[in-house]
């Protein structure tokens, strides 16, 4: 026993990447976005961030961090985090949604005859999409009609002439814990109401 020797045996277990950990996000347009993807593997996996099968960034370490200083609408979509090593690979899809305030479009002007029906629509694009608040405001009279993207007046009166503004509002709630924001947008329509001439007014001036 005095001459006995002992040897230590080190066993390394190699395994393919486990499913990457990455979360879907909502971010307000113009704000910074950070995409964090991690994967457990041995040997360490190569991490690849993809959108529409196009590579955005890569990292040969346990964590990939992809930063965007100012989010724009075209970043909205489905992304993938791919982890791969010599044993195998794993992939997880996630979404990034860029929130933005309403973009409102409406005809610049509309003409209608007195007594006829007036119908004007405004098109609203926003993220999050409907339901959101849409109102029509007539600053000249202080009238407020809503909640609809369609302005409908069954019998147009002369007092309906002037500027009508389509106003839209949504609530943008990011997923990173930042305060929600109200988004607003508007478009103005100039309404002209045509009407026939009134009775002529004749004035007589006495001669001197």
From TrEMBL:
Instruction: List each copy of the Ig-like domain by range.
Output: 20-97, 101-192
- GO BP of this protein: cell-cell adhesion
Q: May I have one GO cellular component term?
A: plasma membrane
List the Gene3D superfamilies hit by this protein, alphabetically: Immunoglobulins
Q: Which InterPro entries match?
A: Cell_adhesion_signaling, Ig-like_dom, Ig-like_dom_sf, Ig-like_fold, Ig_sub, Ig_sub2
Alphabetically sorted, this entry's keywords are:
Disulfide bond, Glycoprotein, Immunoglobulin domain, Membrane
Cellular localisation: Membrane
What protein name is recorded for this chain?
A: Ig-like domain-containing protein
Q: What is the lineage of its organism?
A: Eukaryota, Metazoa, Spiralia, Lophotrochozoa, Platyhelminthes
């Amino acid at each position: 026993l005095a001459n006995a020797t002992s040897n230590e045996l080190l066993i390394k277990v190699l395994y393919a990447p486990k499913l990457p950990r990455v979360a879907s996000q909502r971010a307000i347009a113009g704000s910074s976005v950070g995409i964090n993807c991690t994967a457990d593997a041995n040997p360490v996996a190569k991490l690849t961030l993809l959108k529409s099968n196009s590579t955005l960034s890569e990292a040969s370490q346990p964590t990939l961090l992809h930063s965007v200083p100012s989010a724009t609408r075209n970043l909205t979509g489905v992304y993938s985090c791919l982890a791969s090593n010599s044993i195998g690979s794993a992939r997880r899809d996630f979404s990034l949604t860029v929130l933005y305030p309403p973009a409102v479009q409406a005809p610049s002007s509309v003409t209608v005859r007195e007594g006829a029906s007036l119908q004007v629509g405004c098109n609203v694009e926003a993220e999050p999409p409907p339901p959101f608040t849409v109102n029509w405001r007539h600053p000249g009279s202080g009238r407020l009609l809503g909640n609809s993207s369609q302005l409908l007046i069954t019998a147009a009166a002369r007092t309906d002439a002037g500027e009508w503004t389509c106003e839209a509002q949504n609530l943008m709630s990011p997923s990173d814990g930042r305060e929600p924001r109200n988004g607003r947008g508007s478009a103005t329509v100039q309404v002209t109401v045509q009407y026939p001439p009134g009775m002529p007014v004749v004035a007589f001036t006495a001669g001197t």
